[in-house]
Design a protein that fits this description.
The protein is an alpha/beta fold and about 425 residues long. The chain folds into two domains: about 190 residues, 3-Layer(aba) Sandwich (Rossmann fold), CATH 3.40.50; about 120 residues, CBS-domain. The protein has 17 helices and 20 strands. The strands form four sheets. A six-stranded mixed sheet has the order 6-7-8-3-9-10, sandwiched between helices. Strands 11-20-19-18-17 form a five-stranded mixed sheet. A five-stranded antiparallel sheet has the order 12-13-14-15-16, with no helix packed on it. The longest helix has 18 residues. The chain is globular and about 80 Å long. The two termini are about 40 Å apart. Bound molecules: adenosine-5'-triphosphate and magnesium ion. Magnesium ion binds next to α3.
Amino acid sequence: MIRAEGVTKIFGSAPSTALPLMEAGKGKSEIQAETGQVVGVHDVSFTLEPGEVFVIMGLSGSGKSTLIRCINRLFEPTAGHIFFQHPDEGELDITRLSDERLRLLRKYHMSMVFQHFALFPHRSVLDNVAYGLEVQGKPREERHRHAQEMLEMVGLGDWGQAYPSELSGGMQQRVGLARALATDARVLLMDEPFSALDPLIKVNMQQELKKIQQQLGRTILFITHDLDEAMHIGDHIAIMEEGQVVQLGTPEDILVNPRTEYVARFVEHADPTGVITAGTIALPFDSQAFTTQSESDGLRFVAANDLTELRYGLDDQGRLQEARLGEQRLEIRSLEEVLDSEARGARRADLLMHCPRETVLRQVLRGRTRTALPTLVTNAEGRVTGLIDEPQLIRGILEKRGPSPDSEPQPAAEEASS
Ligand SMILES: Nc1ncnc2c1ncn2[C@@H]1O[C@H](COP(=O)(O)OP(=O)(O)OP(=O)(O)O)[C@@H](O)[C@H]1O
Ligand SMILES: [Mg+2]
């Protein structure tokens, strides 16, 4: 949908003096000291896939707002290109559009929510929300009806006739959000749209945003300071430091494999239970922790070396067909079935669960309240690929990483600084 290539933004009177120093690998403060130019964004490339939520995170001053403003050219990039997949015209280089075409692009295809609400003080709340539709020339009745719907969605259905100055900061932010959502722009650029909201409203808005993205297929570039928010709504996350993207990946990638100390510090306090998946923390079934015990009736019985009486009977495709604890046959259920069924009584010792690799830790933990036995993890074909027992769960929660069969892993921060 959008592809940024080598986008650079330098603030100051002589940006070109900073470029050679940047190429020489000098840092932002050195460049500022030597040339007086401020590096806002430094050689950033990424691709925003249609229909995804792409989150940009980073400390204050790391260049997030500058980057998002380069995308719709509220800031003129000093170098680099931004390509936009136009529905009718094919791929356009935004950095080369004339002012007129840029205006059309912003009017119909990209709408932006600003970090500071930027509402029109002399328009009512309803007319603020309807603004984009008015610019597009939609009739009054239609735009008011649609704007009212959006206001209701952000919980301000009764405030249409009020003026922005009568609203609290968080309410104004919601008006800004409703205004961006009211147009049918495919791309939404959102600069910390939820930062002024109460935690409860914030979680509602995150859910609404996910719904809008999924149902309406909007593509969203979203800036936030809030890591759990990023993890919750992001399909991909880019972490910025001093104008550069230092890591880009899925939330789970970033949580499990932070590449630098800065990223590790960022994710240290994130809640992993909704992000890390069963496939990541499971002990691989083909590792040395498991041995084939016997073969009978066309099944191969495998057991973990530290719990040999619990045996898993697999068919020739590696799918689970039977499970035994000593001589006792166990009931086999998917995690989903277990969670859907009524919880009754104590944790069972005769129930074995399995779940797909994509299941998040939180679901596995829920299942573990029903049975004391390990959970098996399967791939899309139903083949058993791994096992999750208490050590894997604990390691996943505390260390945000999976098992390391060969050696004890180093803490991420130490790895990064070596
Ligand atoms: N209009 C401007 N003129 C000069 N320098 C600017 C301008 N806007 C931003 N900068 C500089 O660019 C750098 C990045 O700023 P930016 O606003 O992009 O940070 P940010 O990551 O959005 O921070 P925050 O989280 O505080 O919003 C900072 O060093 C800032 O001083
Ligand atoms: Mg900002």
